[in-house]
Amino acid sequence: MTTAHTLVAEAVTLAYGDRTVVEELDLRVDDGRITVIVGANACGKSTLLRALARLLPPSGGRVLLDGKELHRQPTKEVARTLGLLPQSPVAPEGIVVADLVARGRSPHQRLLSRWSRADDLAVAEALDLTGTSDLADRAVDELSGGQRQRVWIAMALAQRTDILLLDEPTTFLDICHQVEVLDLLTDLNRDRGTTIVMVLHDLNLAARYADRLVAVAQGRVVASGDPSQVLTPAVIRTVFGMSSEVVPDPVSGRPLVLPVGRHHSGRLAATA
């Protein structure tokens, strides 16, 4: 099982140069649970995840890991606790799958230390869990988009951190593999207690897999809590500028969002 940790953003403002993306945002990550961040494009979701991963220092406020300012902690020390799968990772040219996944073990390597049996087991398990063992000897740049995405997830799993941050982990995956990846992350959370924070675009998958849903609009948290409290027509209109119907998901019992486009709005009015 994992060690308990606290990861908190306090009045965080995040900017790229003169352009402020997130402003005075507060977020406390629930330890040992799955938190999913949703919102429209360019609302600040990925920027927030970068700050939680120590990749983007706040221009205001602070991010705390176990009560200490995240950006003041040594990189390797943070990487043993907190792992990140970014949105568009780039592999070194010509690297094979097994070697890329093995890079997930680098935070656990110390000066003059040797590759260990534990490292071998972590890599093998990560490949097995993501269904990429048969790709181990293939060059990453020869793989399909979906295969590459699963390999990157394997690298993140090989890191064996207590907190795992994932920016759109289902990108490039067909619906079958999307569900497999989200099931895998749920197993990781339930079996090991890994705290998971991820950005997802699909509201219905977010509702199905999240313990806590965080809706972001224009760099601020609009709503946060159980998916049934967050995914309401009013919140969806505020966050996405979209009309919708929300009904119970017949599979999970969670909210199921039915978007209403302008060609169907009349039918919605007629049945109201």
Automatic annotation (TrEMBL):
GO terms for molecular function: ATP binding; ATP hydrolysis activity. The keyword Secreted does not apply. It holds the Pfam family ABC_tran. Transmembrane segments: none annotated. It comes from the Bacteria. Keywords: ATP-binding, Cell membrane, Ion transport, Iron, Iron transport, Membrane, Nucleotide-binding, Transport. One of its GO terms (biological process) is iron ion transport. InterPro entries: AAA+_ATPase, ABC_transporter-like_ATP-bd, ABC_transporter-like_CS, P-loop_NTPase, Siderophore_ABC-ATPase. It is found in: Cell membrane. Residues 7-243 form the ABC transporter domain. It is a peripheral membrane protein. Gene3D superfamilies: P-loop containing nucleotide triphosphate hydrolases. This is Iron complex transport system ATP-binding protein. It comes from Ornithinimicrobium cerasi.
